[in-house]
Amino acid sequence: MLVKVFGSAVFGVEATTVVVEVNVVSGIGYHLVGLPDNAIRESSFRIAAALQNNAYKLPGKKITINMAPADLRKEGSAYDLTLALGILAASEQIKADEIDKYLIMGELSLDGSLQPIKGALPIAIKAKEEGFKGFILPKQNAAEAAIVDGLEVYGVENITQVIEYFDQDIPLERTIVDTKKQFYESLEHPEFDFADVKGQESIKRCMEIAAAGGHNIILIGPPGSGKTMLAKRLPSILPPMTLDEALETTKIHSVVGKTKNSSGLMAQRPFRSPHHTISDVALVGGGSYPQPGEISLSHNGVLFLDELPEFKRTVLEVMRQPLEDREVTISRARFTVTYPSSFMLVASMNPSPGGYFNDPDAPVATSPAEMSRYLSKISGPLLDRIDIHIEVTPVPFEKLSDERRGEPSTAIRKRVTDARELQTQRFSEIPNIHYNAQMGVKQIRAFCKLKPDSKELLKTAMERLNLSARAYDRILKVSRTIADLEQSVDIQSHHISEAIQYRSLDRDGWLG
Predict the structure, then answer these.
(1) pTM passes above 0.85
(2) What pLDDT, in 10s, does the model give residues 166-201?
(3) CATH 3.40.50.300 at 2-177, yes or no
């Protein structure tokens, strides 16, 4: 008897429906075709044990299974449940009248219990698009899949529950998630808060500007000055994610199995902080069977690179194209996948190998030549994509011991959100530009016009401070954001003067 059961394969962040055709006839043998990988080939052993431990059996006949489309490579153990139900239905051990109306996925344990799968959200979206009545999957992934409205999602713990549903009409418990309610409830509870940061008012101001304009930022300072603490709190002042952004972010994390089992939709912006030993493939994504890298996992959030000069130069250089295009394309001989990667880059570094900058009291002395060599590990083209450079100084004891709490993240976020709304209106007619950091030369000339006194100030600063040519556009972008935070239509001279302060690494003679 021939039976068709439906599963799904995930490529990039999109799913493709897989038709599992199971044919059981007289004879001997178990044949699995359709480009399965080793994990799927090994499924026969898991299925045989799971069925035997639940009072069913693998039929002693010729079993032929085709996974169509046959030229599309399938990988992973998530097809165990699909194959097992197909075998039971084709061997007439259970009824199969309704089985083709559902998309079924799950990894089997030997006792018949189900293990979680990857990519539940994109699979659920595809199931709804193709008109399936429901999606049956492990209970751990049910909340994630139930984000999709209009699709019946059933989370199950054991293969017996699925068998009884089709064979004996014993109902399954449907998972229902109020996506909007869950999303908006979790927006106002950031894990880290700027109120915990003592002192560093100028750096907080700088982080606020970076968040308001979506600017990449680099923090330069000695050990213990608070660089990492400040970076971890940046997501808490970014504007809340929209429902569409949350859905797109959750899809990427779902593909690699990084979503939390207890919650469906990701409401907080992601914060990724890879170690400096990371490879270029792990950072941008790839592999023989491409997976999203850290830059895609930080999509709509923050990518924090601590101790930037310690990263391998090849790793840093592969970020240049994704920083510009806000997506990364991975090409293989048979297919190409594209992952979104619109993130804010926050980097931190010590000013020298010893960690201190021209400090006569520093425990480790470093020569200017050593400092120059250390800073040169970061290429000019990469620095060109970082709008704000700021020096972070250690916090004095008086401020560390102060019991008063600082300004909370929610208050800062309100100002940032207001500034972002101005930018959304400004760029509403321009595709793919949503905030100031994304402006090109054409937009800078249109929206960053200077009055004569502001232009003269910028000219004087560039000449006296020996600022590089690449600093010019960055200063204009940042000054536009500072003006937006003040709800100012025009860029004033004090906006320009503040923006000039945030180009430390462009100053000739910064090394003293």
Answers:
(1) yes
(2) 999 899 999 988 777 766 666 656 678 888 888 888
(3) no
